[in-house]
Amino acid sequence: MPDFSAVSLHTPRLRLRPLRPEDAPALFGIYSDPAFMRYWSTPPWTSIDQAHAMIERDQRELPAGEHLRLGIVLKDAGALIGTVSLFHLDAGCRRAEIGYGIAPAHWRQGYQREAVSSVIDHAFGALALNRLEADIDPDNRASARALEALGFQREGRLRERWIIDGRPSDSAIYGLLAADWPAQRSAPSALATPPTLETERLRLVPPSAACAEAWTRFYTDPVASHHYGGPISAAAAWTRLASDLGSWALQGFGVWALQRRDSGAIVGACGFWQGLGWPRELTWWLLPEARGQGLAAEASRAAIAHAHSVFGWPEVQTYMNDDNTEARALVRRLGAEPAGRQAFVDGRERDLFRWPAPR
After folding, report:
1. What is the pTM of this model?
2. Residue 227 region, left (φ>0) first, then alpha (ψ -120 to 50), else beta?
3. Considering the domain boundaries, does residue 4 fall inside one?
4. Do residues 76 and 96 both lie within one domain?
5. Residues in CB range of 350: below 8 A, 6 or more apart
6. pLDDT of amino acid 135
């Protein structure tokens, strides 16, 4: 294999490059985090010396082409947020294993897919590999979904393949062939295509231009939009609609439009929102004629269940202004747990509420 010490890959938001000595503190912060290491094949790190040892090993082995490990760095902030690797390279069979990890603070923002896709491109392109394999914990549903979204196929389970802190752990083996990748690479991102959810009275559908009238009616109504930054102009409402749809592609989650099953009318929105510097939250709104019928609760239950079962989130959060009594009453009806009080980037403090994932 070629010298990997000079490999540098770029994506719209990330730079992937070999680890450097100055990365040691950030690298130790990532690999010492039990949440990050929960499904890893080794225990969490206990000393920064382990970070220095990894970096020194890479500096010796990358020039020999023994493996390729790249730090995942945010272009805008310059922060190291994870690693992605090709290892167990077999030049004769043109095969390698792939591994990856993102710091928990940066989960669910599409960084992992962005980084891994770039390395897959490099593996099947510049390195001319024919097959990639991934070995994950069978209980790691989020990683399984990420691999499947990239076109990997589950090919088997190896029982008690690892012993971690004295405890046996199985492996789920996934494979991807070079012949499968062009079609998968050109397919629309799974994260960018919101699913449609159905409840007794509603369909939760992806936002579209057909929702413009409902978005405009809500956001230009001074009473209805009081707790949502309104009223705003019709042009700004259109921008809000575009932003709500774009969140799915940018962050992998967003809001759904609420469509009545009986009439087909768009009557509101429900889903997840996260602005820059803000925590991710469950959010919802309804047009005036749709209120008082339990539709917000019905939609919220579907969104929360989807976040737990499909996104794999350990919990769903929401928050609201102190004077938003209707929203506070709804979260209580939905069984939310109080999660403390927090200062936000707009200078205000708000109560947080959470729905943990079922065990």
Report:
1. 0.54
2. alpha
3. no
4. yes
5. 319, 320, 321, 322, 341, 342, 344
6. 92
